[in-house]
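From: lab user (bench 3)
To: helpdesk
Subject: output format question, protein + iron/sulfur cluster

Hello, I'm new to running complex predictions and I'm not sure whether the block I got back is the full result or only part of it. Here's what I submitted:
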Amino acid sequence: MSKSINIVTSTAVPLNIENIDTDQIIPARFLKATSRDGFGKNLFRDWRYENDDEAQPKADFVLNNPTYSGQILVAAKNFGCGSSREHAAWSIKDAGFDVVISSFFADIFKNNALNNFILPVTVSDAFLAQIFKAIEADAKTTLEVNLPEQFVKISTTGEQESFDINSYKKTCLINGFDDIDYLINMKAEIEAYEAAR
Amino acid sequence: MAKTLFDKIWEKHVVKNIEGGPSVFYIDKHFIHEVTSPQAFKGLEKRGMQVFRPKQIVATPDHNVPTLNQHLPIKEELSRIQVQTLKENCEKFGIEMYGLGHPFQGIVHVIGPELGVTQPGMTMVCGDSHTSTHGAFGSIAFGIGTSEVEMVMATQCLMQSKPKLMRINVEGTLNAGVVSKDIILYIIALISASGATGYFVEFAGSAIRSLSMEARMTICNMSIEMGARGGMIAPDEVTFEYMKGRLFAPKGEEWEKAVAYWRTLPTDAGASFDKEIDIKAEDIEPMITYGTNPGMGIGVTGHVPALNEIDEQEKPSFEKSLHYMGFEPGAEIKGKKVDYVFIGSCTNSRIEDLRMVASFVKGKKKADDVEVWIVPGSKQVEKQAIEEGIDKIFEEAGFQLRQPGCSACLGMNEDKIPAGKYCISTSNRNFEGRQGAGARTLLASPLTAAAAAVTGVVTDVRELI
Ligand code: SF4
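Helpdesk reply: Thanks, we reran it on our side. This is the complete output you should expect:
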């Protein structure tokens, strides 16, 4: 599992559903683990299987469709709303996704994704529609998600759009730095702050 | 310069601003529970670190706990291990924990305020999105992920970017039968489940000021359901009155000093917000949701939107949602059959909620084919309900009073709604499968839920009061 992100060029899995909440990404009954591993197999569990049975995959769900694969998940607007469970980010990463593209992300999910070296890319509604269209037309369409240059490009159509990310987070992702390392190095300043209040 | 409530608290808690990036932001209080903390403790151990400020953390198990026979060991193995792991971690790292059976145990967002841990002007976090509840006291309170739980354990700080600020003004007087849950469901229906994403929201106006602390907590609790990072309400006499004498509230001279400071916190006249919304309290009627996100709410006398009222782009999600719920576009919601009634969760499980339900059902009986669960938010709420004789009223009505916990708010403990069944719930989320795989949730106020318990169908409570 990569602990840094630079340029990701890959086919993508299209999930054209709005308001995907973290209860769908990983249902509550799978939150009982005390470690961070192995959540990928329960990603979108209740959309993936009939009667919670791995022997009965739902044929119409995109993750069960061998036509689509890749390191990039493309979802409709307001992805990751609801519960703060970081298990949602762990399950997405564990299932092999390094990038999620949507036109709108819930705040807590966005932080959780970044803390797990998943790049949440916010594009315009119009560009998102173009991505879905391109993948629908040709499942082998690759997307280039270029973090250093901050753009997404659709290989088959050549269309591209730039995206925003704050420069601190960008440096962290490219270099594999964690917030926690940064904070631990600030201990003396934090203690000084406490003493001064 | 005129400042907002948020600005005043924010500025006091910035340890350092980073060029082109977030701020190092200091956290006063950290709540933890069994579900989102184990991996954080593991992370600390892997780094060979101690918890930096264990006295600033309060722990309680809530998500996984059974609500019957809490004196017995938890039957489900993974839940038992998670609750046990919390206990062991708290012992190892010197953190106060109110475990099962402790007189202070309960849902983390219910016990913080009732113990006086939650105070105006504070910064508070928890690995739980409904941490926004605590903002009702005039604090900056928000939910975080497990990596962030670990950061706060290690350094008492987080990296935070300042959010945009929104103010929602609710002016006027509420109609009879309309309570604070209806206000927040109305607001979310108005601006949608993502309408406040990227914002921290201050609720203001005469209708908000007229509310009790419990009712204010219900509103701030659900600010996350419109995407907001958190919600807050300026502290006032109602706040101070609620807090005075609580276990961890300041005492004596300290109290006077604290109140004097808290009085400086409300937003100054002329302070500016990135967005403001004005709402008339008179426009709000008892609300209920028909779909699978909290923004899909309507007045109880209204109808599910017809297909031609929905944007073309949103149709697939809308139809998927109605299919899950088993509702037709354009249908009336009133009169729909209900199988379960759940009154509980960090949104509506405080003593005031139970009193409201009790005063409505006194002398009435539940409908025959409805199951009714009342789950108090904490041991203290449970105790008070019994002292006031509320338990007897519920018993006579055929309602089941259970023991404190998150219960049927999320399908994680034993309290689940069976697939295909309809549940009127006072909780905060109607997502697919939230109350159990296949369960169909209709969010409403405790009053509207109680009315449905009595009639067995979705009911306009105003016809019964
Ligand atoms: S009652 Fe529900 S929303 Fe509140 S903390 Fe528990 S699970 Fe979360």
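A quick orientation on your result: The mean pLDDT of chain B is 97. Let us know if anything else is unclear.
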